[in-house]
Write a structure and sequence with these properties.
mainly alpha; 2 domains; two-stranded antiparallel sheet
């Protein structure tokens, strides 16, 4: 099953690369195209989306429960801030700046967990390129407000 799913995703990527079009950069409102208008094989796209939906995390949607079953067991594992339950499986497919597919609730705000590292490293790279960070060896504390930890009893 996993190999078939990976093959579908691979075929989709090949299909996307083969169908070259001019690049469009979105503004505040993303323009939409159907897969056919974008030159994408709709059946392969549907297969990739179905694979993504079927591969949803098996962890509880109750993220408080999930936290305390995993990281909460570690030393100093208490949550520092609020925890929001996870929503339905959601995603978008953007091809050359056009929104060609979406499912779930793309406008829903969800907790990002590990993807935060990727987003933060991108933001740090841009800030460094713009001279907003003097040196990558500088301590983070020189650029952010101090973090104030709360007592666990204050969060209940």
């Amino acid at each position: 099953m996993l190999h078939r799913g990976l093959a579908v995703v691979g075929l989709l990527l090949v299909s996307l690369c083969v169908n070259a079009q001019s690049v469009y950069y979105p503004d505040a409102l993303w323009q939409r195209k159907t897969p056919a208008e974008a030159g994408i094989n709709a059946a392969l796209l549907k297969g990739a989306i179905d694979f993504a939906v079927a591969s949803e995390s098996r962890n509880p949607r109750d993220l408080t429960l999930n936290h305390y079953q995993t990281f909460g067991r570690e030393p100093f594992g208490s949550a520092i801030g609020p925890i929001k339950d996870r929503g339905d499986q959601t995603g978008v497919v953007v091809y050359k700046g056009y929104l060609v597919a979406e499912w779930g609730e793309p406008s829903r705000v969800d907790m990002t967990h590990s993807v935060t590292k990727s987003l933060l490293s991108s933001v740090v790279g841009v800030a460094y390129d713009r001279g907003m960070i003097r040196s990558l060896d500088d301590p983070v504390k020189d650029y952010v407000a101090p973090i104030q930890l709360y007592e666990t009893s204050e969060l209940v």
